[in-house]
Amino acid sequence: MINVPIERTELFRCALLFQTDNTQRMTTQKPRVIYIYDALCGWCYGFSPVIRRFYDTYADTYDFDVLSGGMMTGPRVQPIAASMAYIEQAYKVVEEHTGVRFGEAYLDNILQPGTYLSDSEKPGMAMTLFKALQTGRQLEFAGTLQKALYHDGIDLNIDTNYGPLVEPFGVDPDEFVAHITDQAIKEQTWGEFNLVAQYGINGFPSVIFDTGNKLYLIARGYVPYERLEAAVEQITTT
Q: Is residue 75 exposed (0-12), middle (13-18) or buried (19+ Cβ within 10 Å)?
């Protein structure tokens, strides 16, 4: 999944898939960067500094959306012990190629005990609820979730752990925790998971560039910042 060649692949355009606010899109007419990730994806953690740098550089030029991919759902939900041997090697590869570091708290509190349940549902629901409350800062929150897990060793299956994560964004922590398990939030989250899968996005991280007329897959797997920027430049200058 390292340095996958960028393809200018036009994707089937579907407003429902990407939860588009059509009124806002018609008003702003900004191109849009759609970041498809999963909170439990180690390569997405490695990609976090890249997509955050891109956001910091182009936040005034493009709109940014985040979709949760549902990487660990259904039969893939299992204790982390089932994939521990793989993760013990893979996280070092991610560190080597991306420069991020997996924290001792993650290694000691999440990985080594082996009992942590790898399940994308709860962090996906947290993102769904957060997007409803803070639509402009969802990419920042994606990074917060991944740092919480992979650096700070915070269990993302526990509702109350989200309170301190959302408070710095100006979100009431108690209200957030109270509503994270709402049925409507769960249904919307699963709708997002299913639609991402339905439209062929099954590898994370992925980045789509929406010109307003066409959708281009500009990253599939980890890519460095320069490649991401070059892909967008190619689209916008031709």
A: exposed
The Cα 106–Cα 90 span in angstroms is 14
Q: Are strands 32-37 and 206-210 parallel, antiparallel or unpaired?
A: antiparallel
Distance separating alpha carbons of residues 208 and 17, to the nearest angstrom: 12
The residue range of the domain holding 165 is: 9-236
For residues 122 and 186, the answer to whether their CB atoms sit within 8 Å is no
Percent over 90 (pLDDT), the chain: 83
Domains: count for the chain: 1
CATH number for the domain that contains residue 50 = 3.40.30.10
Q: What is the pTM of this model?
A: 0.88
Q: Tell me whether residue 1 is in a domain.
A: no
Q: What letter would DSSP give residue 222?
A: B
Q: Is the pLDDT of residue 19 over 50?
A: no
